[in-house]
UniProtKB/TrEMBL annotation:
Keywords: Signal. InterPro entries: Ice-binding_C (IPR013424). Coiled coil: none annotated. This is PEPxxWA-CTERM sorting domain-containing protein. Residues 1-20 form the signal peptide. Residues 169-193 form the Ice-binding protein C-terminal domain.
Length: 201
C-alpha cells in the first residue's frame, strides 16, 4: 500500500503546472424531464501531447443514461467503465464501482509528443447525458504524453483534479423543514386514526 501511495505522489509530481490538463464542465442542456446533457471542455497544456492510449476519465457520472457518452473530437473514442484501473484518484475522492466513469481515449497518431512547448490547445465536444440536472464535485484523471523538457519527451504525464458531475438534487433547508413538518402531520394523523379504530372496534 505504501509503495502505491508513493508511486501516486511521484506520478502527480511529474505533471508540473506548465503541463497540467484542465477539465471543466462547460454547460448543462435540459432536454426534458430527467434528461440533461453535460458538456465538458479542457485544455491540453503547452508541455503535453497525446499518443494512442492516452485518456481522460471523469469519475462517478451519476444518473448516466445508457449509450449517451459522446466525443466529437477526431481520434477520441468515448466509452464507460464502472472501475478504472491504473489511475490516480484525487485525494478525498474515490471511484465508486456502482457508478459509471466516462472514459475518453485517444486512438490517433502521435500528436505534439516531442519538440515542445507548443501553444496550449482548448477542446470541447465531450460529455454524456444524465437523469440528474444538479451537480457535485468528483474526480477526473488525465494521462497525456510530455513533449518538454527534451529529456522527458515521450514519457507519460498524469494529472488529477475535481470537476462537476451529475448529482441528485439536495433539498433547500426550507424544503427540508416543510418535508419534516409534513411527515409530522402524517404521523399525527396516522396515530389519531389508529386510536379511532381501537375505540370503535
Amino acid at each position: 500500500m505504501k509503495r502505491w501511495v508513493l508511486a501516486a505522489v511521484a506520478a502527480v509530481a511529474m505533471a508540473g503546472p506548465a503541463s497540467a490538463a484542465v477539465i471543466t464542465l462547460q454547460s448543462i442542456t435540459n432536454n426534458g424531464p430527467g434528461n440533461f446533457t453535460f458538456n465538458y471542455q479542457g485544455t491540453l497544456g503547452p508541455d503535453e501531447g497525446v499518443r494512442a492510449g492516452d485518456r481522460l476519465i471523469i469519475f462517478d457520472f451519476r444518473g448516466y443514461i445508457a449509450g449517451s457518452v459522446f466525443s466529437n473530437l477526431a481520434n477520441v473514442t468515448a466509452t464507460t467503465e464502472n472501475t478504472s484501473t491504473g489511475v490516480i484518484i484525487t485525494p478525498g475522492q474515490n471511484d465508486d464501482p456502482n457508478i459509471p466513469n466516462l472514459v475518453f481515449t485517444y486512438v490517433g497518431p502521435d500528436f505534439q509528443t516531442s519538440g515542445g512547448p507548443f501553444a496550449a490547445i482548448d477542446f470541447n465536444g465531450i460529455g454524456a447525458r444524465s437523469t440528474f440536472g444538479s451537480t457535485a464535485f468528483d474526480a477526473f484523471f488525465t494521462q497525456t504524453t510530455k513533449n518538454n523538457p527534451p529529456a522527458e519527451a515521450m514519457t507519460a504525464a498524469f494529472q488529477v483534479g475535481t470537476v462537476r458531475v451529475p448529482a441528485a438534487a439536495v433539498p433547500e433547508p426550507a424544503s427540508w423543514a416543510m418535508m419534516l413538518g409534513g411527515f409530522g402531520l402524517l404521523g399525527a394523523a396516522t396515530r389519531r386514526r389508529a386510536r379511532t379504530v381501537r375505540v370503535t372496534a
